Structures are given as C-alpha cells and as structure tokens.
Amino acid sequence: MTTVYVPRDSSARSVGADEVAAAIELRAARQNTVVEVVRNGSRGMMWLEPLVEVVTARGRVAYGPVTSDDVAGLFDAGFLDGGAHPLGHGVTEQIPWLAEQDRLTFSRVGVIDPLSTEDYQAHGGLVALRRALAMTPQQICDEVTASGLRGRGGAGFPTGVKWRTVLDAPGIEKFVVCNADEGDSGTFADRMLMEGDPFMLIEAMVVSAIAVDAREGFVYIRSEYPDAVATMRAAIQTAYQSGWLGPRVLGSDHDFHLEIRVGAGAYICGEETAMLESLEGKRGVVRAKPPLPAIEGLFGRPTVINNVLSLASVLVVLARGAEFYRDFGVGRSRGTQVFQLAGNVARGGIVETAFGITLGQMLEKFAAGSASGRPIRAVQVGGPLGAYMTPAQFDLALDYETFADAGAMLGHGGIVVFDDTVDMAVQARFAMEFCAAESCGKCTPCRIGAVRGVEVIDRIIAGDDTAANFTLLEDLCELMTDGSLCAMGGLTPMPVRSVLRHFSEDLYRPKGVQ
Amino acid sequence: MTAKPPTADGESPRYVAWSEDAALAAIRSLPAQRGPLLPILHALQGTFGYVDPRCVALVANELNLSRADVHGVLTFYSDLRTTPPGRVRVQVCRGEACQSVGGRALAEHATSSLGVAFGATADDGSLTLDEVFCLGNCALGPTVSVNGQLHGRVQTAQLDRLIRESAPNGDRA
Ligand SMILES: Cc1cc2nc3c(=O)[nH]c(=O)nc-3n(C[C@H](O)[C@H](O)[C@H](O)COP(=O)(O)O)c2cc1C
Ligand code: SF4
Ligand code: FES
C-alpha cells in the first residue's frame, strides 16, 4: 500500500486540495491500487499548493501545484513510486526553500496527520510536557526566561517574566489564555499551526498551566478560522480521551481543563484586555492598565495570555533546552521567528528562520520577487499597524530592535509585498479606515482621530491644499500616537507616517486628478 | 477511503424559524460555563441564522443580566446580526495582502455585479455580502469565503461562478 499526503490546510483547500484528494482516491479505486490518502497540514510552501506527497523508499516525494486534472497524468507517470513528472520537486525535505529554514515550532506541521496521537508522539510530541512535569513551576519559568523568548503576538514581552509574575501573584485561582485571534492581515501562522499540529498548542497550554499553577485555560480563536476551530475542538476531545487533559494529566497531580472560545469578528479582541472582556461575555472594550492581566486578568484573577507561536516556542525550549533555542537569533531577538510571506510574492508561505536575516534576503531568497514579475515598491511588515518599507530599507535585519529603530515593527511576522502599481496614498487611507472600523471606541484620539484621518487623506488625494493637509495629518498622527489608550490608535500612525516619509510623491497630486 | 476532515464544507447552512421554544432550547443546550454570553449568542445565530431582537429579553432573563448588557454585546460584534441572512454568505477579503494582488477590484466587482453593498443582503434573500479583514489565506489571494469555505486566487469570473454554484436550487439561475 502506498501512502499519499494531500493537505487539509484551509489554504490548500482554497485552491482545490479536496478535489485533488478525491481524484486520487477515485483513480486508485478504479485501477485497484490500494492508496491511503492522509490529510496532513501544509508544509507552508503555498505557491506549490495543493502539494501532493508520496511516501517512497527515497523519502516523501513532492508534486505541486496539483489540480484534479493533473491526477491522471501523475498516475501514468508512476508518481506512486516517485516517478518523474513536470510537477515533481523531488524529495520534499530537500527542496531548498524548505531545507534552508530553521523549522523548530513548525517541525511537525505538514509532516504529520494533525489528529493522530501516534504521529504526534512519534515526532517529539509530549517530550516537553513530560519534562515540565519533572520540574518545579519556578524552574519552568526560569528556563523560559533563559531562552530569551519574547512574545510573538506583537509586543515582544519576555514570556518567562510574564509567567513568573502570574506564578508569584496571589490568587485562589489562575487562568491561562491562548491568543489565537490572529487579526493581522498578512498573517496565517497561528492558523496553520492549529490546523496542522493542534496537539502542540494543547501540550503548550498544559505546560503554561503547570508553570503558573492554573487549572483552567481558554483558546480564543477568531471566527474567520472555522477549520482551525473544528480541528482544535476535535484535538481537545481526543486529548481528554487520552488523559492529556482533564484530571491528573498524564497521571500527574495536575488537573487542567481547556476550552475553545470563538470570537465574533472584532479585530480589537486580539488586544489582550479586550479579549478578556470578550471571554467574560462583554463588549470587547480595552481595559486601562494597570492592573496587568498577570495580576488581575480573567474574572479578576491572575492570567497568562500568550500568542499561539509563543506557546509553541516554549515547547521547543523545554524539549531541547533554553540554550539550544537561544543559540538562534541576534541581539535581544532570540530563537526563530515564523515569518509569513504574503501578498504579491512569487513564493509565499511560512518561512521559519532565526532572527537577523535581512528583509532583502527574505524577498530574494524566499519570496523570489513579486508574483506579477514587476519591481517591488513597498513591503508592509508587522500587520495593518506596521510600517511600509521601501527598497532602500531592504538591508535592515529582521529583528525587534533594528525594526524599532527604523520606526517600524516585526509584529506577528507578516510580510506583505506590493509591486510598483501600488498607490501609497490609498494604502495610508486604508490604515486610517481600518482603525475607524475596528476601534473599540473607548478613547477619542483613536475613535474620532481615525475618521478625521480618512477625511484629511481624502483631501490630499483630491489635491486640496496639500501642504496644509500634510501638516494636519502629521499633527493628527502625533495626537493618536501620544493620546491613545492602546496600540490600535497608538500604532495606526505607523503605516501612515511611513507613507508620508518614504512615499510622499504619491501624496502630491494635481487638483482634480484622482 | 479516509475520514473527511472536520472542516467547513461550503454548504448553505439550514436554519430554523424563530420561536421562543427553539431559542430557549438553544440557550439551554450549552453546558454550564463561565462567561457564557458570547457562546450563547453564537448558538442562537447558529440556530436561526441571526439573533432575533426577541432573544435579548430571554437571554437576559436566563443569565440574570440586564437587557442593556445583552443588547450592548449583540451590537458590538460585527459577526452577530439581528436580521435573517441570505441563503448564501459571501465574504470578500479587504486585507492588505489581498489588496496587493487585485483585491480592491474584486471587492468592487462583488458589490457592483451583485448590486449589494457590503454588510447587506440581496432583496430576494439569496445572498449576504460581507467584507472581512483577512481570512488567513494571504499568500494565495485574492480570497473569498463562501459559506465558510475558502477560495484562493479568485478572479472576477471565478467569483461569479462560485456564487452561481453555491446558490440553493432555483436561486440566481
Ligand atoms: C489592536 C491589537 C490587536 C492585537 N491582536 C493580536 C492578535 O491577533 N494576536 C496576538 O497574539 N496578539 C495580539 N495583540 C497583542 C496582545 O495584546 C498581547 O500583547 C499578546 O497576546 C501577548 O502574547 P505574547 O506575549 O505571547 O505575544 C494585539 C494588540 C493590539 C493592541
Ligand atoms: S486606542 Fe482605540 S482601540 Fe485602543 S482603547 Fe482607545 S479607542 Fe479602543
Ligand atoms: S489579507 Fe486577505 S486573506 Fe489575509
């Protein structure tokens, strides 16, 4: 019997993976060949999706992008034995795009059957949890701190320090919350991890609970990810049945209960305090800090809130040691970052690599230029609140400090590429429009400022008194940056200012020409 | 043959007509949990396709909250709707990654060809058109979701076809 992998990742399905899987099964049945089709996660080489892999003596051999119309030809070429075909790429793990990455947190994604507990354990699953069970909570926090891991949700706060604060906080109960809201456009790593390796997130939640002495946890997933919700729900059910969740986890003294909560279409609920409000059943309005969630979080109790990728990284730290993890990266950016190449790129997808690679290397080596074949003009890094970078900045190293010094940010690792047909005035306007649409409404600079920002940019686009409106926009950006309660209003000026600074030629327009 | 993965299947969901009994059954079908309001509103919308304003008093009563609290939450979240949806739900991504590969033109095509604004439902109830800021398919845009099933690299002609094919019998023939 031959095993064939066809991803069930929702991105792969968006370009026909289900049809390809069905066509393979149909053809195999017709010619009486026994084929087991396993629906794995995606390897993250999105430009090759649907990527079909066949298990051969040489290893897994890749074909892609495959459509259902290609299936007959693949059978004729003997793909079940790894036969040559124009869509063939040889042994998957040797494809340079993949081989040149440091897949630590994504080591299992695309490799295993996401809901198989056997696959999970055969590929290093539960190693971290077993180790954590033999450690004291303090030791776990210390090890995470020693790894240098900083939060991957955007703010970059040291994860071990946050855990220690919750551990030390007095409280009759404590909570752990996973932020799986992944609202930033241009990002999809959390989704792929949940769809492709859901037990990893569950294991990491158990570890975090042991580290801070919590017995209850929530994963808050955005409603835009129905496949991730379904996969996580199925995995949680299996984890309970396997004794990985519930009373006496893996036979230890630790009880842990984990639940999925689904968002309802509010970007601001990715902000941690708005998320807590939402979990409590309220409007997703941002809370003033202090108190920190680590002291007074969910239902007023000490609460850890971490991004999916931060939690996934913790498992690498525990399974392989703080030193191993810290050896990747540069400066105060330790370990690997899961970059997501998106937008107008020839080769989009997941690039997990040590911090420190330059933006230009990322665009040349991995993105392989734009999808349109036209020159790249702007790259937005770090989601909708991140700066637009110009080609003159492509030699900047992708690490937290270098980007902060350049008035930019890495955020959740999204890299969105635009070619030279982009109108940067329109992109600046969109940043304000997005903030106006998604503001929680608590503070004036954000709620009113963003609406005013759209109006001012509209006047600039219309060529109305450009110089005066330029100044007005600068002032507005300053007001929003300084006067907003959270980073929604506080960082919306970042993309706008990057356009003012680096793409101002798009803002000076003759009157009447839009 | 392998088991079908637990994923959105792109089928039109089937909803029941509003009744107090069905609403109470939906509310009470959920296990006891802390912070139950959002899960309950999701359950009601899953049952009826929308949260009928008549649910507000019922939910307030069941959870011992004020009507203002329930109403406040119901109106805060853009997913929650208070009028019946169309038979097909189309979401067009307006995020930056999709913009960079023609998402703006696709969004304009959607509203103009369907004659429906974002957030609105066609007069004949055939379809609801929503904008969304990112569907997590940013390397394969422009992205559209039809009844929860993602479609990548969608060009205008394909959008027209997807909408035609997703229509339950008789709609938009
Ligand atoms: C407007 C706004 C949106 C945010 N959205 C997300 C998000 O979608 N996912 C996420 O992990 N963090 C998001 N954050 C950051 C969280 O507030 C918080 O810093 C993070 O969840 C902490 O986890 P970490 O330390 O593991 O990064 C957002 C912040 C703001 C201000
Ligand atoms: S900055 Fe905007 S999103 Fe943040 S608290 Fe103020 S109004 Fe709400
Ligand atoms: S920006 Fe459209 S799917 Fe992410």
Description:
The complex is a heterodimer of chains A (514) and B (173). Chain A has 21 helices and 16 strands. Chain A has 514 residues and is of the alpha/beta class. Chain A has four domains: 94 residues, Glutaredoxin (3-Layer(aba) Sandwich); 210 residues, NADH-ubiquinone oxidoreductase 51kDa subunit (Rossmann fold, 3-Layer(aba) Sandwich), CATH 3.40.50.11540; 88 residues, Ubiquitin-like (UB roll) (Roll); 83 residues, de novo design (two linked rop proteins), CATH 1.20.1440.230. In chain A, the strands form four sheets. A five-stranded mixed beta sheet of chain A has the order 2-1-3-4-5, with helices on one face. In chain A, helix 10 crosses helix 13 and helix 17 packs antiparallel against helix 18. Chain B is an alpha+beta fold and 173 residues long. Chain B folds into two domains: 85 residues, Arc Repressor Mutant, subunit A (Orthogonal Bundle), CATH 1.10.10; 79 residues, 3-Layer(aba) Sandwich (Glutaredoxin). Helix content of chain B is 39%, strand content 12%. Chain B contains seven helices and five strands; from the N terminus they run ααααβααββββα. Chain B has a five-stranded mixed beta sheet, with helices on one face. In chain B, a hairpin with a 2-residue loop joins strand 4 and strand 5. In chain B, helix 1 packs across helix 2 and helix 1 packs parallel to helix 3. The longest helix of chain B is centred in the N-terminal third of the chain and has 12 residues. The model of chain B has no long low-confidence stretch (mean pLDDT 91). The chains are: A alpha/beta (514), B alpha+beta (173). At the A-B interface, helix 1, strand 2, helix 11, strand 8 and strand 12 of A face helix 2, helix 4, helix 5 and strand 5 of B. Bound molecules: flavin mononucleotide (FMN), iron/sulfur cluster (SF4) and FE2/S2 (inorganic) cluster.
